[in-house]
Amino acid sequence: QFIVDELRRYAPNLPCEFDESGNAYNILDLQEFVPEAPESLSEFESPPSPISSYDSQPLNDGDFSKPPPELPSQLRTKILDEQSLFVRNPRSSRKPSHTLLNHLYKKDGCDGQSVALCSTHRFLQKYVTVVLYKSVHR
């Protein structure tokens, strides 16, 4: 069930159930597990590192003067800045990058009066992206 413009909505083309009051709720069947990873991860496991490769040298001032590491390129994606795929093609089947899944993205509005939150999750072979816009009242 979705709330759009303060009205309860559901997708009639998807499986749904009705409660005693007649409200419709879409059903997500999560019983079938479709793994995203390969069947066997053993081929990706690295051999254990030797104990001699570890040390316990104390940190010095030089360690604290280094700049922080660069942001990985996968995390530079600005999902909230992209034009909506739904606007361009409602039936778009572009698979989102695995780096976008199960993360919460936040973007402040230009005027400082609003905020957008975005999250993408996977249900079986479907991907659901939810974007919430909220005005900031202080």
UniProtKB/TrEMBL annotation:
Looking up InterPro entries in the UniProt record yields:
ASC_dom, ASC_dom_sf, KINB
* A UniProt-annotated Pfam family: AMPKBI
Coiled-coil annotation: which residues?
none
Region annotated Disordered sits at: 38-73
Judging by the UniProt lineage, the source's domain of life is Eukaryota
Q: Which GO terms describe its cellular component?
A: cytoplasm
Q: Where is the Association with the SNF1 complex (ASC) domain?
A: 47-136
Assigned protein family: Belongs to the 5'-AMP-activated protein kinase beta subunit family.
The record's listing under PANTHER family reads: ASSOCIATION WITH THE SNF1 COMPLEX (ASC) DOMAIN-CONTAINING PROTEIN, SNF1-RELATED PROTEIN KINASE REGULATORY SUBUNIT BETA-1
Q: State the protein's name.
A: Association with the SNF1 complex (ASC) domain-containing protein
Q: Which organism is it from?
A: Gossypium raimondii (Peruvian cotton)
